[in-house]
């Protein structure tokens, strides 16, 4: 398993191009299965999770061609003959569960493994299943698999309210409904940009969807969907990650290109409260670090609130702030596995229930730390970039799931990160 050797402290100066969004691409790939002709998606990042999902989709007989040179993915479900998603693949990546909605939408039935555990949790799928049943589907659980089917070509549909709002459940219910439910309304639907892009893309394929980006989405059934050429969005979480990284060291000045600033919701203003100067110009964002970082407490919320996927990264920044801050995660109540690792580097933070209290500034000094999940890993890399001396971040395969060319992008902007064969 690879590890990173990071020497710090180093400022970030230069320009980083933002890659396609992992969390927006995965629903688009599932949606492509619903088309009666091939769909090509541009700006697909070369990430482990994308390759994993390619293999999950291929199990059904659907062809998936990934042109890595152009980050372009073509999906053709013309030969789909096996409406299943097996445990050995689904357990590698939770979003494989989108195959339930896609296969039920396409073929009227599906056998999909329940997702495995996660580095934090619980991460249930009860809303996905109850929503499908509310739509008119038969749902059975058998030996760790969900057996879903529609009793006929179409079902009446109905109304289902998500509580809490869920990105994944919203995606799965949309995928199942567009070709199967006469009329289906999702209340308290997710408003994340990933969901808006999915709805816009399905509409281009011929779907009838109203309310994308609001908390009420209504789908009217269409007989068929056609394949299209379309583009993925830039990754808003990668963008936010590098914006936070650029605020950590007083000499940093970083330009991010190929961004979609409006997808960042309230985040840029939160970052400005630390004293960082954030300049947005079309698809370019420049972050100039403050002389000293003001402590800013945050609470994660559904979009357009502060994203839970930036919570760990924010904690790393707050270890350098002049004072105390509180970071509460209202989406996942135990997404703090990075805390003991940051403490090994010399940070002063403590967790109580779903809130971490950070007292800064702390002088961080390099040592070995362990990645536990995707966003916790990147918070450790960021800490290594401002720690004195050498930091070893183990099990960086977590990073390879969600950050395309991370060390190259950071090294081109002044970091000193070397990838080595790990333990
Ligand atoms: C998506 O996960 C993202 N993953 C996550 O990003 C992100 O953290 C999360 O949304 C929240 O924004 C992808 O898009 C592939 P949810 P998802 O269903 O859909 C509860 C990353 O780092 N819930 O919106 O699984 C759940 O427990 C990943 O890129 C139920 O109770 O998240 C949580 O508290 C990590 N029952 C809340 O809803 C359900 O059936 C939000 O989860 C489903 C969810």
Explain the overall architecture.
With 423 residues, the chain is of the alpha/beta class. It has two domains: 2-18 and 234-421, Enolpyruvate transferase domain (UDP-n-acetylglucosamine1-carboxyvinyl-transferase, Chain), CATH 3.65.10.10; 22-231, UDP-n-acetylglucosamine1-carboxyvinyl-transferase, Chain, CATH 3.65.10.10. The chain is built from 14 helices and 24 strands. It has helices at residues 22-32, 48-58, 87-90, 98-107, 126-135, 167-177, 193-205, 236-245, 267-272, 311-318, 339-344, 374-386, 397-400, 406-411, and strands at residues 3-8, 13-17, 39-42, 63-67, 72-76, 84-85, 109-113, 138-142, 145-149, 155-161, 181-187, 208-210, 216-220, 229-231, 253-257, 277-281, 284-288, 298-300, 324-329, 348-352, 355-359, 368-370, 389-394, 417-420. The strands form six sheets. It has a four-stranded mixed beta sheet with strand order 22-23-1-24. It has a four-stranded mixed beta sheet with strand order 2-15-17-16. A hairpin with a 2-residue loop joins strand 8 and strand 9 (145-149). Helix 1 (22-32) runs parallel beside helix 2 (48-58), helix 1 (22-32) runs parallel beside helix 4 and helix 1 (22-32) runs parallel beside helix 7. It is elongated, with a radius of gyration of 21 Å. 53% of the residues are buried. The mean pLDDT is 97. The structure holds ligand EPZ. Residues 23, 26, 94-95, 123-128, 164, 166-169, 194, 308-309, 331-332, 374-375, 402 line the site of ligand EPZ.
